[in-house]
Design goal:
By secondary structure, the chain is of the alpha+beta class. The chain has a domain at 1-36. Helix content is 24%, strand content 10%. It has a two-stranded antiparallel ribbon with strand order 1-2. A hairpin with a 6-residue loop joins β1 (28-30) and β2. The longest helix has 8 residues, at 44-51.
Length: 62
């Protein structure tokens, strides 16, 4: 499932504090304004819940 959710990728190697905080939990999704986090492991349904999106309905062929 492709979610088409905009994001900014940040390499934790750029900041020692990020390495200490996220090293064993990457990938991590973070809302910078609220500091809400979703750490690995997660699936597409978890991401949709995290961003407050409605999951797409499954397509049924008739």
């Amino acid at each position: 499932m492709q979610l088409n959710i905009p994001f900014t990728k940040i390499d934790i190697a750029e900041q020692e504090q990020w390495q200490k905080r996220y090293a064993i939990r990457i990938p991590v999704l973070v809302y910078l304004d609220t500091k809400k986090e979703l750490a690995w492991p997660f699936g597409s349904e978890d991401i949709l819940t995290f961003v407050g999106a409605t999951p797409p309905l499954p397509c049924h062929k008739t």
